[in-house]
Amino acid sequence: MRGLTHRAVDRAAGVPEGSTSYYFRTREALLAALLDHLAALSTAEIETVRSEDLDAVAGLIEHWATVGRDRMIARFELTLEAARRPHLRDALEQLGGRFRSMAEDLLATMNVPDHKRRAANLVAHVDGLLFDQIAGAGSVRSRDDLRDALIPLFAAATADQEL
Fold first, then answer.
1. Cα(78)–Cα(32) distance, rounded to whole angstroms?
2. Is there a contact between 54 and 61 (Cβ–Cβ < 8 Å)?
3. So what CATH class is 28-158?
4. I want to staple 112 with a disulfide (CB 3.0 to 4.6 A). Which of 4, 41, 86, 107 is the partner?
5. Count of CA atoms in the C-beta half-sphere (13 A) of 99
6. How far, in Å, CA of 68 to CA of 78, rounded?
């Protein structure tokens, strides 16, 4: 995260020096904008698989862990940075609400009881699975292995009764 500066963004974007700081006056604003941009990209990708199709969800996680790996690393680094920056933490909580809301909508359409709480748990578990794919000590799982890992997560999220 230290390498993300207004000047670095200006150079990477090929715009005159000072352009980025015109739109994002502070580092906090720049980080929040990056977080928002990453969330918008992920939201668009999630929209393509908004169903209980575990193959599609596994494919999305596989995509994020391979093609989108750098973006997911940036997302997780921003998440850790938010633990130290209250302003960024607020932005992260707001954006995380988007993902939980999408999961809530999915579980509600499936008539899952207590869908809000279960959606929050489902998102946390899928995030953990993705984090393990990106930074875990084991080897990267195949799409089939990811699907197998998702089965108990979705089963728990959609079960009629609590254990």
1. 9
2. no
3. mainly alpha
4. 107
5. 21
6. 15
